[in-house]
Write a structure and sequence with these properties.
single chain, alpha+beta, 4 strands, 43% helix
Length: 115
Amino acid sequence: MPPTVYKVLFILGGLFLAYKLIFSGKKGLTVFELHFKEGRLDRHKGKIPEKFQRECKALAKAEKLTGLVRAEKLNGAVRLHVSANISDDITQRIRNVFPFEYYDKKTIDNSRQAG
């Protein structure tokens, strides 16, 4: 093969590698999403803890929130993402209400508990 083919293949390989490193960000499994629009729950997806949903709706109504609250599970840990247009103090209030311990439950392997 001529040297120009090797150069082209090398450049294409480098571009492919750069694309994979930049755009293949590791995303977790979305546990739930809450979409608020002008203080009302516009739409939701996933299994949302009842108390958390109730508290978020009350907070959104009081503060006239517009934005997104999303929980993702990655490597066993749950992370709460709040859209950037929600202020920091409201974000902290949402995090204080979120039941992290609900998702941190350890599963017990009953097969090893022979009685």
